[in-house]
Amino acid sequence: MTQAGYKGLKGKVCVVTGAAQGIGRGIATRLAQEGCSVIFADLKTADVESAAEAARAAGGRAASFTVDVTERSSVAGLVQYAAETFGALDVMFNNAGITHGCDFLDLHERDFDRVMRVNGLGVLFGIQEAAKQMISQGTGGKIVNTNSQAGKTAWPDYAGYCASKFVVSSLTQSGARALAKHRITVNSFAPGLARTPIWEVLEADAMAAGQIHERGEMVKEFEKGILLGRGQEPGEFGGIACYLASEDSDWITGQTIMIDGGMVFL
Ligand SMILES: NC(=O)c1ccc[n+]([C@@H]2O[C@H](COP(=O)([O-])OP(=O)(O)OC[C@H]3O[C@@H](n4cnc5c(N)ncnc54)[C@H](O)[C@@H]3O)[C@@H](O)[C@H]2O)c1
User: CATH code at 133?
Assistant: First the structure.
């Protein structure tokens, strides 16, 4: 177990959605290493349980929960489970997300709705249900949404995804304004390109649309636009997650912090 260096972080009860793999798993694992009690939550029951089990095996306090963030009752159940299992909810990470790519003119309402439902509505439910619990505890709290560089600038080949991440930027600001009086902060962080399975979906879509001809081409093209020269590994978001979950970030709310190696300047 590493020594906790973030103010007030140790012992916090955290929920991370989309924690079966990728960025969410990286964040949840790091929080457990820092001494938080962590609920790993995801649609993928077996994978999310094995992620939590790995955190427990490394000496952390962790449990898993099967959640579908597009269902309010499922998100409410997750929050209730955190409170029952570890006694409270201090920090909610609304991280679960999906992507979709195609030519702008081919974007179908079915795919637009699907991406909006997970990335947009899922974040709204996560903020609302976590906030209700934090308000009832009277403790304040922190809500951290996983945004994207696509929530700050837009691209033609995955317009639905970009729109859904602009929703995350917007809900982060509305949530911050609505919840400050309850001592709840709402922030987001925005990865640029992280080497997770989500890129397999984007590249499969791009190949189907004839935009790229081999796997890895899209990632390489995006990496050319990253000042620091490469995409991040999923575990490289732990520091920003710990900071935003800790008292060190108490005076930040309504913000989106770019963590993209220098892709998008605001
Ligand atoms: N990888 C990147 O380059 C990148 C860049 C910017 C932003 N992001 C964002 O980071 C977040 C995590 O992405 P990732 O790259 O780790 O992707 P990933 O596909 O590796 O992981 C996403 C996880 O979310 C889960 N999930 C999907 N729909 C869900 C639902 N309805 N309910 C509960 N869980 C659900 C999946 O099962 C999966 O485990 C997403 O919000 C994504 O948009 C990723």
Answer: 3.40.50.720
